[in-house]
Prior knowledge:
Number of helices: 11
Structural class: alpha/beta
Distance between the termini: 90 Å
Number of strands: 12
Amino acid sequence: MNRRQLMLLLGGAMTAATGLRAQQKPVPVxxxxxxxxxxxxxxxxxxxxxGLSESGYVEGQNLAIEYRWAEGRxxxxxxFAADLVGRNVDVLxxxxxxxxxxxxxxxxxxxxxxxxxxxxxxxxxLVASLARPGGNLTGFSIFGVEMMPKRLxxxxxxVPQTRAIALLVNPNNPQTPGITRDVRDAAxxxxxxxxxxxxxxxxxxxxxxxxxxxxxxxxLVIGADAFFLSRREQFAALALRYAVPVIDGWREFAxxxxxxxxxxxxxxxxxxxxxxxxxxxxxxxxxICRSSARxxxxxxxxxxxxxRSA
Length: 310
């Protein structure tokens, strides 16, 4: 084989390889945007992957995922959302508070968004209505605010002798005014006093429990909040130390040793987010999505009340 024949052969091989690459479709990419740290959402990311696999997608095989974690610094979310949009991802999936969904919605009106929403998506302005939302956002609402009054009612039935039940909220959470208003209404209807405590850090959570004694509060309702969810083991330990009945909205609180929880199954929600994201990644253009108001409510409790440790 002479030099001319060799060059022709190599040129033909390169042309064939280029043509083959042109025929290969790039794998879809999901942008995953969260306001929380990755370690705190490990079980929910696993559920998200399970939902993806049920729709035929496995990360690293036929799907790529770009993760952005704000780690509690919610002011970083708009820049993260803009970065993912700039990378032209096929779908945006959001978690870790409504701020993630808002940042994604503000960043794009074309890329499909699958969001976990803590409250009514109409009230938060994410969709026009549940029946006719329009736009590019769909997802799951966990009704964190709506279930708060019910949690107070349940706790008042468990400890009927108490005259004061405290409420702990995160003042940095945009849902806090609604939570406080609704739980105060429920407290008046139930006939109990409602001192309101605030916490944004681990040390402030410690201080809030210490204040329960001075406030003569016989029980505590934990406000719906992504940061509080991440501190579930701390809450369970403090409830045991101070021998105070505490109710939360997530199964993980009871699993960590808390007394009782009432609310949404977050594992089921994130599994649904994964399945919906997988379906959206197949769409040739952004669909007009309906916002899904699916409820996954359940009771979870341990078999014994908290007792003061020695």
